[in-house]
């Protein structure tokens, strides 16, 4: 469980533009609470990936304020950002595996970056690869893995460090329905352990698979919150987040 | 569904260094296949030869200066042989009774004839050209201006045609040339060090470009700038060690070959240019300095690049 009270992420009137182009994200305000499960939906080009980039600290907004784990990450010194990133797990849309490392070493990367002793790395990595059904492909390089296998390695890498927040960009896009469901169950398992999960997807069928999830919908760079669940989350979510 | 064990364990999050082989593996290693070790080897070899040349010149100049520091020459410049002999005799007697003189020796006429023979021909001296009487004197102290003036004043009372010169003064142009060559050697060493740093800078930038995806991944997984820099430091450090050892071997071999050739000249001055143990140790330090320059340059290059990321 997270070691902070209140919201895990809070966006306040955030805007994002690339260069001199128009804003791709406009007036984004929402709050994510610990232990919640969010789906981020929207048409292609709506700004889902841009919003996720702000969430996993790959991009600074052009305006507005972002608080994460109780700190203002906009004004935070750059040297302190890695500590925040280590509390996040990210599944990239294009997987972003290190091409010359084996599946095992790719999954082990977050643990090694966080300074875990080498002797403690092997067991959790083996467990994780086993769980995503890749126990027979430890030594395989990404180029020799299928798209679905690469995606599973990417997901294993994102969750291996048991992050406080998991951000996944179309995590089930390249896997069969059975594996998609299995991965979704993994995210739910993480969520039950206290990890906040944000999954960007255009697959409406997925949304129904997690009944307690909250929906964030992006439309042309604007976040719609018709039910008010983002600004005013269900009482159960808030109570859980402020519980000791 | 069985929950993976990893999910049930809290991960110890720390800032311990991400280094060693596991970090180095993040960047594909070209080792001897790549150009970097060979570039460093050539730089180190050239630096070793240039530095050895500078040190040999320094030793040569020091030896010559030590040998000539107390040496003066007294010339009795008198055209008439009888008067010249009388004055030379008086000078020899005065030197014999002077406590400031360590040794003195009249240069024999045969020796003078041999010295002048290349220019004047056999048997041409004295009968046709009056040759001064030369007395080689070594003072107990340094043959500075005051000591020479003092000796000149005393000898003029007994030998009006005597002239005293410091032997080191004759070699002053040689010392000046040696000093210039030493500065040239230092400039070469500095230029080679800068060129090595530039080569490493280019290699690091090239490696950064070809491994940008990996760097971004490590960065987004929470890797610090220092951790990312260490990946490249280690990689280039390996190359620098390999290149440094090879360069030192090539450079030392070159220095030994050159040393033997100069030693074979048999010249007194060249004999003083041999390298001493501290000189060899200094040369052995060049690849170490090369590795330090390479690693520091790689670190600064990588840090400057990754700081542009958020």
Write a concise synopsis of the structure shown.
The complex is a heterodimer of chains A (244) and B (310). Chain A has 244 residues and is of the alpha/beta class.
- Give the assembly state of these chains: heterodimer
Helical region count of chain B?
11
* Major β-sheet profile of chain B: 4 strands, antiparallel
Please trace the helix and strand order of chain A, writing H or E for each element.
Answer: EEEHEEHEHHHEHEHEEH
* Widest sheet, order of strands of chain B: 2-3-1-4
Record field, number of beta strands of chain B? 4
| H/E element sequence of chain B | HHEHEHEHEHHHHHH
Cα-to-Cα separation, first versus last residue of chain B: 39 Å
> Rg of chain A from C-alpha positions?
18 Å
Overall geometry of chain A comes to: globular
Sheet-strand content of chain A, in percent, reads 15-25%
What structural category arises from helix and sheet content of chain B? Answer: alpha+beta
Give keywords.
heterodimer; A: about 240 residues; alpha/beta; four-stranded antiparallel beta sheet; 8 helices; 10 strands; about 30% helix; B: alpha+beta; 4 strands
General description of the model:
The complex is a heterodimer of chains A (244) and B (310). In chain A, the strands form two sheets. A six-stranded mixed sheet of chain A has the order 6-7-8-3-9-10, with helices on both faces. In chain A, strands 2-1-4-5 form a four-stranded antiparallel sheet, with helices on one face. Chain A has a domain at 97-162. In chain A, helix 3 (103-113) packs across helix 4 (122-131) and helix 3 runs parallel beside helix 5. Chain A has 244 residues and is an alpha/beta fold. Chain A is globular, with a radius of gyration of 18 Å. The mean pLDDT of chain A is 86. In chain A, 32% of the residues lie in helices and 23% in strands. Chain B has 310 residues and is an alpha+beta fold. Chain B has two domains: 20-65 and 173-306, no CATH class; 68-171, Alpha-Beta Plaits (2-Layer Sandwich). Chain B has eleven helices and four strands, in the order H-H-E-H-E-H-E-H-E-H-H-H-H-H-H. A four-stranded antiparallel sheet of chain B has the order 2-3-1-4. Chain B is elongated, with a radius of gyration of 33 Å. Chain B starts with 19 loop residues before the first helix and ends with a helix. Mean pLDDT of chain B is 82; it is low at 1-17. Chain A binds chain B through residues 56-60, 78-79, 81-88, 90, 96-101, 105, 109-116, 118, 123-125, 127-128, 130-131, 157, 159-162, 185, 189-190, 193, and chain B through 1-7, 9-18, 22-23, 25-26, 28, 213-214, 216-225, 227, 307, 310.
């Amino acid at each position: 469980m997270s070691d902070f009270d209140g919201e895990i992420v809070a966006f306040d009137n955030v805007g994002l533009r690339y260069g001199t182009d128009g804003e791709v994200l406009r007036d984004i305000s929402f709050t994510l609470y610990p232990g919640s499960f969010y789906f981020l939906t929207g048409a292609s080009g709506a700004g889902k990936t841009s919003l996720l980039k702000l969430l996993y600290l790959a991009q600074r907004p052009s305006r507005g304020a972002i608080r994460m784990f109780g700190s203002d990450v906009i004004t935070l010194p750059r040297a302190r950002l890695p500590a925040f990133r280590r509390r996040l797990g990210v599944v990239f849309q294009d997987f972003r595996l290190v091409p010359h490392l084996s599946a095992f070493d790719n999954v082990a990367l977050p643990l090694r970056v966080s300074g875990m002793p080498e002797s403690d790395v092997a067991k959790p990595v083996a467990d994780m690869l086993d769980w995503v059904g890749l126990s027979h492909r430890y030594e395989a390089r990404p180029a020799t893995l299928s798209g679905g296998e690469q995606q599973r390695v990417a997901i294993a890498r994102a969750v291996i460090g048991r992050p406080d927040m998991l951000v996944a960009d179309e995590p089930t896009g390249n896997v069969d329905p059975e594996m998609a469901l299995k991965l979704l169950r993994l995210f739910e398992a993480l969520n039950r352990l206290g990890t906040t999960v944000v999954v960007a997807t255009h697959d409406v069928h997925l949304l129904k698979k997690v009944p307690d999830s909250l929906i964030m919908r992006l439309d042309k760079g604007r976040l719609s919150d018709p039910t008010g669940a983002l600004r005013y989350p269900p009482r159960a979510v808030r109570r859980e987040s402020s519980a000791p | 569904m069985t929950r993976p064990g990893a999910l049930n364990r809290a991960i110890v999050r720390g800032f311990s260094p991400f280094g060693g082989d596991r970090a180095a593996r993040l960047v594909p290693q070209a080792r001897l296949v790549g150009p970097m070790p060979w570039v460093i080897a050539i730089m180190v070899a050239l630096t070793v030869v240039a530095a050895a040349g500078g040190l040999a010149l320094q030793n040569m100049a020091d030896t010559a200066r030590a040998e000539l520091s107390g040496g003066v020459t007294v010339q009795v410049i008198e055209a008439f042989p009888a008067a010249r002999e009388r004055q030379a005799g008086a000078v020899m007697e005065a030197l014999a009774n002077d406590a400031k003189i360590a040794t003195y020796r009249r240069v024999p006429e045969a020796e003078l004839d041999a010295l002048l023979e290349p220019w004047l021909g056999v048997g041409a001296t004295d009968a046709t050209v009056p040759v001064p009487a030369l007395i080689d004197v070594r003072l107990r102290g340094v043959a500075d201006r005051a000591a020479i003036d003092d000796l000149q004043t005393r000898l003029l009372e007994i030998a009006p045609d005597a002239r005293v010169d410091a032997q080191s003064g004759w070699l002053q142009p040689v010392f000046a040339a040696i000093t210039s060559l030493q500065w040239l050697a230092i400039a070469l060493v500095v230029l080679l060090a800068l060129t090595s740093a530039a080569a490493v800078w280019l290699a690091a930038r090239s490696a950064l470009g070809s491994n940008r995806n990996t760097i971004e991944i490590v960065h987004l997984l929470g890797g610090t700038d220092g951790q990312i820099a260490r990946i490249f430091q280690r990689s280039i450090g390996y190359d620098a060690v390999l290149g440094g050892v090879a360069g030192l071997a090539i450079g030392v071999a070159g220095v030994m070959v050159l040393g033997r050739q100069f030693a074979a000249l048999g010249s007194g001055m060249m004999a003083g240019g041999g390298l001493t143990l501290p000189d060899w140790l200094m040369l052995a330090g060049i690849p170490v300095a090369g590795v330090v320059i390479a690693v520091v340059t790689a670190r600064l290059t990588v840090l400057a690049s990754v700081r542009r990321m958020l």
